[in-house]
Design goal:
globular; 19% strand; single chain; 358 residues; 15 strands; 12 helices; alpha/beta; two-stranded antiparallel ribbon
């Protein structure tokens, strides 16, 4: 059974039909929110950043939200293959011990341990990320406004309820509750320009620095009610910052230049976290015309442990049985080597018939 499905927008399909897919064609690589689902992309990350892209020299924008921000930050480290291996190991082995009768860890408990893990992971290495010769990193976060400007036991649930109702009517109007704040690699006195237009949603951009890298990355991973918000990030507007996936779940953005290579865990590129149940927003738009999307075959996914991708429900399902969860997730990650084998074979002989419509 084929493990890998390849999808492409119309302009990307035209380019592939002429010249195949070359590493020098790529201008942007997005990385979605999605928690443990992103583990299945580790083998592709190691191949793309550690092997394939080394045959090119052009600048590339890396855009990430939540675990995608962690992955793209790791891509900017020296020796990225080893760094991705550590990310996979550390993510798989994270454990939040539950007290007797406790079904899930508190948000404070998760935030504290996760923050410590991020600090240890990037200790002494943030400079590698900020000064990378090719890669321009963009970490997406969601900043609360009005009721959501600070985290509060009553205000926060009410604010997210308001955001949900507003989003159902019009996604752009959700900007009254939450704005997209992107922390970008420095470029002189300013930021590296964003590789996508921002007229779709209320957006701010802030330069990444040694002072704000860890808070920005933790904020991008801070799922509401699962982790605590990160407040008052240095160099950024004051307030509460949450998971970048709230505003940009799968980074369905209006990409501007070159081809976009998107290792993803499904075909659909869902705009925001609150759009997960709004199926009419799961279809491709002209924003994705230049995109080549790599995703696992849903039938192949059924062969993985529990018949699905790793996901956050596994923390509850396995509870304190860390060894069982580690075994299941390691098995899924090992199986994902087939995705790389198939992608490498297709790159060598890029059959346009293998490319499906995105």
């Amino acid at each position: 059974m084929q493990a890998l499905h390849i999808y492409a927008g119309p302009l990307a399909r035209q380019a592939i039909a002429k010249n195949g897919l070359q590493p020098g064609d790529i201008s942007t690589i997005p990385a979605a929110a999605g928690g443990p689902k992103g583990l299945l992309l580790g083998a592709l990350d190691r191949f793309i950043f550690g092997d394939w892209l080394t045959a090119s020299t052009q600048p590339i924008d890396l855009v990430g939200a939540s675990i995608g921000a962690w992955r793209m930050s790791t891509a900017c480290l020296n020796k990225p293959v080893a760094a991705f291996g550590r990310l996979e190991h550390d993510y798989i082995h994270q454990h939040y011990a539950l007290a007797p009768g406790q079904k899930r860890p508190s948000a404070a408990q998760v935030s504290e341990l996760f923050g410590e893990n991020l600090l240890a992971f990037y200790a002494g290495r943030v400079g590698e990320i900020l000064s990378h010769s090719r890669f321009r990193l963009h970490i997406v976060t969601s900043r609360g406004r009005h009721l959501l400007n600070t985290e509060h036991g009553l205000r926060t649930p009410l604010g997210y309820f308001g955001a949900y109702l507003t989003n159902v009517v019009r996604r752009k109007s959700m900007g009254a509750w939450l704005e997209r704040v992107v922390f970008s690699s420095p470029a002189g006195a300013h930021c590296a320009p964003l590789p996508y237009a921002t007229d779709d949603y209320r957006t701010r951009q802030v330069p990444l620095s040694e002072r704000n890298f860890n808070p920005a990355l933790q904020a991008s991973c801070s799922i509401p009610f699962v982790l605590r918000a990160v407040h008052n990030i240095p160099g950024a507007p004051p307030g509460a910052y949450w998971d970048g996936g709230i505003t940009d779940y799968h980074l369905h953005l209006n990409y501007q230049q070159g081809l976009v290579l998107y290792p993803h865990f499904q075909k659909s590129v869902v705009p925001g976290w609150l759009d997960k149940s709004l199926k009419w927003r799961h279809h491709a738009t002209h924003y994705l015309d230049k995109m080549v999307l790599l995703a696992p075959n849903p039938e192949w996914v059924k062969s993985l442990p529990n018949g699905k991708l790793p996901d956050r429900t596994d923390f509850t399902h396995y509870g304190n049985d860390l060894a069982a969860r580690v075994k299941a997730w390691n098995t899924a990650c090992s199986a994902s080597a087939q995705l790389v084998d198939e992608f490498a074979a297709w790159l060598d002989k890029p059959d346009p018939q293998r490319v499906q419509v995105l």
